[in-house]
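Quick review question:
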């Protein structure tokens, strides 16, 4: 599983501890580099500081899901909608899979995508739709994936 940057709050004391000390410097710019398995492999953010407390939030660079799919149950003939939400600061490609095969839009499968959400809509669910669905988001900074199990009642 890859590591992703979600959000980091830094204050001036944390930034100052990473900088060389200059007795008269009360403001300026610095690069903050962090490495943490909880956040991301390596992220760098420019931030400004002054002698007062300063907080800076760092937005995700690699795509990350903020709303994942949940396992779903359906009856034959139902319409199923699987929604995901994600954060990314670069153009993101979204790909849906059924049992590791790319889902192609057709008269039963529709994909709706906006800047931060994507939905897979399956019309007229049948027993053959029973199985694992996954969604992959990819941009130049990284990737993330989530999945769900669709259980169709009556499927063997």
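Suggested answer, residue by residue:
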């Amino acid at each position: 599983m890859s590591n992703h940057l979600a959000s980091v709050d830094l204050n001036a004391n944390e930034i100052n501890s990473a900088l060389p000390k200059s007795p008269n410097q009360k403001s300026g710019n610095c690069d903050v580099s962090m490495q943490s398995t909880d956040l991301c492999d390596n992220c760098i953010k420019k931030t400004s500081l002054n002698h007062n407390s300063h907080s800076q939030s760092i937005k995700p660079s690699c795509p990350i899901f903020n709303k994942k799919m949940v396992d779903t149950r359906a009856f034959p003939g139902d319409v199923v909608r699987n929604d995901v939400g994600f954060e990314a600061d670069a153009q993101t490609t979204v790909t849906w899979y059924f049992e590791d095969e790319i889902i192609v839009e057709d008269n039963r499968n529709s994909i709706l995508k906006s800047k931060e959400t994507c939905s897979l809509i399956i019309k007229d669910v049948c027993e053959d739709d029973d199985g694992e669905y996954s969604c992959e988001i990819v941009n130049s900074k990284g990737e993330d994936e989530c999945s769900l199990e669709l259980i169709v009642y009556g499927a063997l």
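Why it works: Confidence is low (pLDDT under 50) at residues 1-16, 29-51. The chain has two domains: 9-57, 64-152.
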